[in-house]
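User: Predict the structure for this protein chain, please.
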Amino acid sequence: MAIVTGVTVRVPAKLNLQLAVGPPRADGYHDLVTVFHAVSLYDEVTVVPADRDGVAVTGEGADRVPADGDNLALRAVAALRAAGPAGDADPAGVHVTIAKRIPVAAGLAGGSADAAAALVACNELWACGLSQQQLAEIGAKVGSDVAFALLGGTAVGRGRGEQLTPALAPATQYHWVLAFADGQLSTPEVYATLDRLRAAQAGGTAPAPSSARGRAAQPGAAPRAAKSGAAKSGAAKSGAAKSGAAQSRTAQSRTAQSPAPGLDAALMSALRSGDATLVGRTLSNDLQPAAISLFPALRKTLAAGLELGALGALVAGSGPTCVFLASSADRALALAASLAGAGVCRSVARATGPVPGAAIVPSAK
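Assistant: Here is the predicted structure, written as structure tokens:
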């Protein structure tokens, strides 16, 4: 049997097509309901045997990625090692190299993606023979989004987001434009801000946000249900909100008195139809108002994308990336060029989805 001397894994970014956040629990976490969607913006993670664990990061935002025990990829390595003995290889040290294209602290779960990739790579390197489900159970101890980065595709997440059910939807290809902000947002801070906004609304000290999401709100339309997942007070991502006409077409939050988060039936119906226009109208993110309150420039970015013809817009997770759905590859190209020229973001990228989760890159022969 050939000795494996190094393994490279490619892993995608995630979007939240719906992110519904419940009230804070006694343990500080929030129950979530979310619809995850993996897109073709990838990090590559390579592991090779080493005397002791270490990590090196290159690419997008490399200087902001921890290079010590706080690095999620290294934490995933340690979690897999602690889970039990390897098969034909000694689970000794590894050196992890992360080539980043997924921006850091951008609401796209880049750190969780790297953790998932490290699990897949070490599972192969150490000949552990663990299934995807077994790796997901280990990954859930490292981060709430790790399990989805292993699965990919489109899936409903509940709990903290780690309880996954693949979405029953056709393999329609959707075209996305991602607008990266010149700055970052702390997930815990965004959650904490959401809690404060809701408390103020409940106390009558601030107007409750609209319950509409990615399309123009229609008179008499029933408010939509929220999402799924669970994150600690100040620990989740995604959202979309605007001002004026633009605001009525982007994902927004539910009211402070809303019940426990639930799956949005309208979004799931849109996904089953494969109709990008319907999907764009049903995007939603409860964290968006909080993200915009902390990073007001996002309002202008969201408005610009909708005015340029996007089918829907929202803040990705806890932000500050803004995400736009286009009707075709050509429209996505045009939208990306227009946003780049409008001066409303640091840079843009195009991506398609859904795509598979973390996968080993075949070695060159």
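The two ends are 16 Å apart (CA to CA).
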